[in-house]
Design brief:
Blueprint lengths: L13 H11 L8 E3 L7 E6 L3 E6 L6 H14 L9 E5 L9 E5 L4 E2 L8 H17 L23 H10 L6 H13 L7 E3 L8 E4 L2 E5 L6 E3 L7 H4 L3 H9 L5 H20 L10 H18 L1
Antiparallel strand pairs: 1-2, 2-3, 3-5, 4-5, 6-8, 7-10, 8-9
């Protein structure tokens, strides 16, 4: 079957998913089906019955992630204490949907939000423990960073021109000199130890909470092996003060890696802010992240 164009986004609704399930997995034809809200960007997700999740790429750019997760999630899970997605079936392309897709076990829990996290410092240590275990998972044959995961785990130099352009465009909304200092510090070093597994998208929407504690990490579509700095961005997007210090203390990473982590957090905040109308920028979570990064860089260089 010819692949749909890169920018093509097929219709993915309950009716389409019901047809796919009925045709390819008739043993599940009688199960209830409903969209999971809020929906994701890279994939559309639907709850199937009480204990299954259907996940379909929303565009061609995300199709490679299906095979990657099908292949590597079971191997990662064997080395991780925390729950992660468990693929149980792989759907095929068809006339009504052009790409492969997956069925997973349903994982209980709600996406992390500050109101649902009882103790952010404990949450930070639990997340650090997960990342430390992830860094110990064998990497032989694992995927390298690239377009399939938007270069998570690769050098930030990939986004150098984009970042510098955004700093210029947002000069009225930030301390451009400090932003450039953060970026230059991030580009100054490289990850020299052997590559390790990175999740690639450690964000509140991919961290599940049960009874106030971290209970699962989902969405490994941006995973690869390389520099773990990309997974540190949550230190500035979600943690602060005590919880950020707890997160950092629980991860055996050097100062240069944390500097690259600040770079990852700032890059994403900048490109997000650039798309927001000027009147709304200062109320954006990305503006708060940017301010946290700049302040943390200043404090790190004062000490």
């Amino acid at each position: 079957m010819q692949e749909a164009p890169q920018n093509c986004q097929p219709l993915i609704d309950v009716n389409i998913v019901r047809q796919l399930i009925d045709l390819q997995f008739p043993q599940w034809a009688g199960l209830s089906l409903a969209p999971v809200l809020p929906g994701g960007w890279d994939n559309r997700t639907f709850r199937l019955g009480a204990d299954k999740l259907v996940r379909l790429p929303s565009a061609a750019a995300y199709v490679e992630q299906v095979e990657k997760e099908q292949t590597w999630l079971p191997k990662i899970a064997a080395n991780i204490s925390l729950a992660i997605p468990e693929p149980i079936a792989k759907g095929k392309p068809s006339d009504i949907y052009p790409w492969p897709w997956s069925v997973y076990r349903w994982l209980a829990g709600e996406p992390a939000a500050e109101a649902r996290v009882d103790d952010k410092a404990t949450f930070a240590r639990d997340l650090a423990s997960f990342l430390h275990e992830l860094h110990q998972v064998p990497v032989a044959g694992a995927p390298q960073p690239g377009l399939h995961n938007f270069f998570r785990g690769d050098s930030l130099a990939v986004y150098d021109a984009e970042t510098r352009s955004a700093i210029v465009a947002l000069a009225d909304f930030l301390d451009a000199d400090t932003a450039l200092a953060v970026w230059d510090a991030a580009l100054k070093s490289k990850w020299t130890p052997p590559p390790v597994w990175v999740h690639g998208d450690i964000a509140c929407g991919n961290l599940l909470v049960n009874e106030g504690r971290l209970c699962a990490v989902i969405d490994f579509g941006c995973s690869a092996v390389g520099d773990p700095a990309c997974d540190l961005a949550i230190a500035w997007t979600f943690f602060e003060g005590k919880s950020r210090r707890a997160f950092r203390a629980a991860l055996p990473l050097d100062g240069s890696t944390w500097a690259r982590g600040r770079g990852w957090a700032m890059w994403k905040a900048l490109i997000t802010l650039e798309k927001i109308s000027p009147g709304e920028r200062k109320s954006s979570p990305s503006y708060r992240t940017l301010q946290q990064v700049l302040l943390d860089h200043y404090q790190a260089n004062e000490n």
